[in-house]
Specification:
alpha/beta, Nucleotidyltransferase, domain 5, Hypothetical protein af1432, 3 domains, six-stranded mixed β-sheet, five-stranded mixed β-sheet, 14 strands
Length: 488
């Protein structure tokens, strides 16, 4: 697979492109993202589904610039798909031929089911929730998929879209007709009852951003933001009943969404009610990432290997320069947690975050050795994008900040308090991280000592001798968390 790949999605409302870069077999990161609100479906639904000349020209102009951007990044592969508006257009062949002739770009028109599947595998692979219904409300259609154990069980497309409903109903102020139309289409929904909905696409993200801001959510990361369906219903009803754009602005709706937010919101609320959803999760990934993953994972049944995380591996690929010591630190940290979690009253589920912090402990040193823990903290907070909950990201980054064994600052912890365990728990976990690092201060080639717990004391038993630097470092940590003794 090409090291850099550009992925273009021609939707009814916007044309978007991402550029992904591989750092190892399955690890990657986002290099660039761009979109243009060309509204290619503008006036198409009023004209028998025929794409109009002005929107076509806007799309071609945007695609020409996208190609230039992709070439500037030396993207060796360009994947381009078109969805509902082009799929339904009577004149799609002439549009595709024109783009191929003028730009040398081959566009693949995908089915609604394929579009839903791609969004499904993106969410199943790149979000921590593996069993859910994914929902992408687009301009011309709405796609959904049902996932279980990170696999897509079913996927389908509905003729419900923001631009479609706007032109057919909302421009005529026929809200009653819009509701009746939505409900009639939803008779074909095959999802059954779904407690969890993963929201994909511009409409859902716009609404989730409003809720996230209202809740003063501490982590500035929309991907993975989780909230109650009741919050969405309350906001949605206010948006649908808003009298004018001033009222929409007051609710937090951005200007570019004024004309399509009401139809999109109405579709979402009717689906929430239909499937009985209780919890909503915002996804920062969708069709484009799914298309990329279908290429990346084409020999792996569209699923990452077990326990693999692309964001974690990307950080290690780019910023970790001593794999042998990293592996020893993780092994020792795991051993310490196993021995001490009951003694320290630590929930066993915390082991996962602690071990990830052990893997990432030194990545900040690649930027500047001094204060490397702050750099590691920031890298985890910003770049652990895929596959972790916001609670896990906050805890991992906080452990990295206090990995030298210092007590966490209450003022800083307070900023992320809603996502974190108690300060006492953070202190104990960070101490285990500091202890493993101290015991490996001399960078041994193997763990040449045994550990056991006796009378609430951790006893270190050297097989030959414990390095002078290691013993000195452990004693410097103090015994506020647990006593450490060295066997002779």
């Amino acid at each position: 697979m090409a090291k850099r790949t550009a992925v273009i999605d021609i939707g009814s409302n916007s044309v978007r492109m991402i550029i992904m870069e591989k750092t190892s077999r399955f690890a990657f990161h986002l290099l660039h993202e761009v979109k243009s609100r060309v509204r290619i479906s503008e006036n198409a639904y009023q004209n028998g589904g025929e794409l109009q000349e002005e929107p076509i020209q806007r799309a071609i102009s945007a695609l020409r610039d996208f190609m230039q951007i992709a070439h500037s990044y030396d993207a060796r592969k360009i994947l381009c798909v078109a969805t509902s508006a082009v799929r339904d257009a009577n004149n799609k062949k002439s549009f595709l031929s024109r783009v191929r002739k003028e730009l040398g770009l081959n566009i693949k028109v995908i089915s609604g089911e394929r579009e839903a599947y791609l969004g499904g595998i993106a969410c199943a692979n790149l979000l921590p929730l593996k069993d859910a219904m994914t929902l992408d409300i687009g301009g011309g259609s709405t796609e959904y998929a049902c996932t279980q154990d990170a696999k897509v069980l079913s996927s389908d497309s509905l003729d419900l879209g923001t631009v479609r409903l706007k032109e057919l109903f909302f421009d005529k102020n026929d809200i009653k007709g819009a509701k009746a139309y939505i409900d009639s289409v939803l008779e074909g929904l095959k999802a059954g009852n779904q407690e969890d909905i993963i929201g994909v696409g511009g409409t859902f993200r716009a609404l989730a951003q409003i809720i996230m801001k209202k809740k003063a959510h501490p982590l500035d990361k929309l991907h993975g933001f989780t909230f109650n369906a009741e919050d969405m219903v309350a906001l949605g009803e206010k948006i649908i009943n808003a009298k004018d754009t001033a009222a929409l602005k007051a609710l937090g709706v951005k200007k570019e969404r004024y004309d399509v937010i009401k139809p999109g919101t109405l579709i979402l609320l009717r689906i929430i009610k239909k499937v009985g959803a209780k919890r909503l999760i915002s996804s920062g990934v969708g069709l484009r990432e799914g298309l990329y993953l279908s290429d990346l994972l084409r020999h792996n049944k569209d699923v990452f290997p077990e326990n693999f995380n692309p964001s974690l591996t990307y950080l290690l690929d780019q910023h970790s320069h001593n794999a042998a010591q990293r592996n020893l630190r993780v092994k020792l940290t795991k051993r310490l947690f196993m021995l001490l979690h009951q003694e320290l009253a630590l929930d066993p589920t915390l082991e996962k975050s602690l071990l990830i912090a052990a893997k990432l402990a030194k990545v900040g040193a690649a930027h500047n050795f001094y204060h490397y823990q702050q750099h590691s903290h920031y890298l985890a907070l910003s770049a652990l994008e895929y596959g972790y909950t916001h609670q896990e990201i906050a805890l991992i980054s906080m452990l990295l900040l206090y990995q030298l064994g210092k007590s966490p600052k209450k003022s800083y912890i307070a900023e992320y308090q809603v996502l974190l365990p108690s300060i006492d728990t953070i202190k104990k976990l960070s101490y285990l991280l500091a202890l493993s690092d101290a015991l490996l201060t001399d960078h041994p080639s193997k763990i040449d000592f045994e550990l056991r717990v006796e009378n609430s004391t951790l006893v270190v038993v050297p097989n030959k001798r414990l390095a002078y630097l290691a013993k000195e470092s452990v004693l410097a940590l103090g015994d506020d968390t647990i006593k450490v003794a060295f066997a002779l």
